[in-house]
């Protein structure tokens, strides 16, 4: 089974593609999403019921849960969801999951790894899923997406590719309007092109965004970068100090 959690849930079984509306309701779909997110770790029936219904449990929730498992097994493959003592788990070696590929590429910590990881991103993880457990996993991968963009942006700056650095930093700001490192990349890219006034405007934009988001000033590192730009330090020296 091939499963994608970037964007809305997408599953392929024996050449048949299933989307988020193909699981006989929201709860069976959410159950599959929860088990996939756990990557083969077992969850008890009590824990699954808690995640699925939070504080609004139906009558006889465990029986309802067992019915959902039966629905999924008929749709997917009886061997994909294993019964364990008191609960269930996904048999991970029978699932090709995009998050696993993303994590492996991201963990390399290299330009090629980050590029490969970004090619897998087709939206937020479990896009549109409102449950609390989904929001937590979504934020985790949104941060990794942001980190990958910024690592590539810094690498582009060091290669004197201001155009690419700027594109990546702008994309990072779409994920987090208060991403200090994204503003720093944009400032350095502007400074490298002798666009000093733009660099200084970006510094002020970062300060305003951080005040609005966190009620705080930028970090001392960012303030030092700003001072270097104000003092007209050579652009190569500023970049070396910022990325060294």
Search tags:
7 strands; 244 residues; alpha+beta; 11 helices; four-stranded mixed sheet
Could you explain how this protein is built, in words?
This protein is of the alpha+beta class and 244 residues long. The chain has eleven helices and seven strands. Helix content is 61%, strand content 9%. The strands form two sheets. The protein has a four-stranded mixed sheet. Strands 4-6-5 form a three-stranded antiparallel sheet. The chain is elongated.
Biggest pleated sheet? 4 strands, mixed
List unreliable stretches of 5+ residues: none
Mean pLDDT: 91
Number of helices: 11
Q: List SSEs in N-to-C order.
A: EEEHEHHEEEHHHHHHHH
Overall geometry comes to: elongated
Strand order of the largest sheet: 3-2-1-7
Which structural class best describes the helix and strand composition? alpha+beta
In percent, how much strand structure appears in the residues?
Answer: 5-15%
First-to-last CA distance: 44 Å
Helix content: 55-70%
How many extended strands?
7
Q: Supply Rg.
A: 23 Å
Topology, please?
Blueprint lengths: L1 E3 L5 E4 L2 E3 L7 H12 L5 E2 H9 L7 H15 L5 E4 L2 E4 L5 E2 H10 L3 H9 L12 H27 L3 H14 L4 H13 L3 H19 L5 H11 L4 H9 L1
Parallel strand pairs: 1-7
Antiparallel strand pairs: 1-2, 2-3, 4-6, 5-6
Helix pairs in contact: 1-3, 4-5, 5-6, 6-7, 6-8, 7-8, 8-9, 10-11
């Amino acid at each position: 089974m091939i499963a994608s959690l970037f964007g809305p849930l997408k599953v392929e079984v024996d050449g048949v593609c299933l989307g988020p509306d193909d699981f006989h309701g929201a709860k069976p779909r959410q159950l599959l999403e929860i088990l996939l997110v756990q990557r083969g770790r077992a969850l008890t029936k009590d824990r699954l019921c808690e995640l699925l219904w939070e504080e609004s449990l139906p009558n006889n929730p465990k029986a309802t849960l067992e019915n959902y498992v039966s629905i999924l097994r008929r749709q997917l493959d009886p061997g994909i969801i294993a019964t364990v003592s008191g609960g269930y788990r996904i048999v991970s070696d029978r699932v090709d999951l995009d998050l696993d590929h993303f994590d492996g590429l991201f963990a390399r910590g290299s330009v090629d790894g980050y590029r490969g990881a970004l090619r897998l991103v087709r939206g937020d993880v479990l896009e549109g899923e409102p449950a609390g457990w989904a929001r937590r996993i979504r934020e985790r991968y949104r941060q990794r997406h942001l980190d990958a963009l910024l690592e590539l942006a810094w690498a582009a700056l060091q290669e004197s590719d201001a155009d690419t650095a700027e594109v990546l930093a702008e994309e990072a700001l779409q994920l987090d309007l208060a991403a200090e490192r994204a503003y720093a990349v944009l400032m350095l890219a502007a400074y490298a092109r002798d666009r000093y006034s733009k660099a200084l405007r970006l510094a002020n934009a970062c300060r305003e965004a951080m005040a609005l988001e966190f009620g705080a000033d930028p970090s001392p590192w960012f303030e030092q970068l700003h001072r270097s730009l104000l003092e007209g330090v050579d652009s190569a020296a500023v970049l070396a100090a910022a990325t060294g």
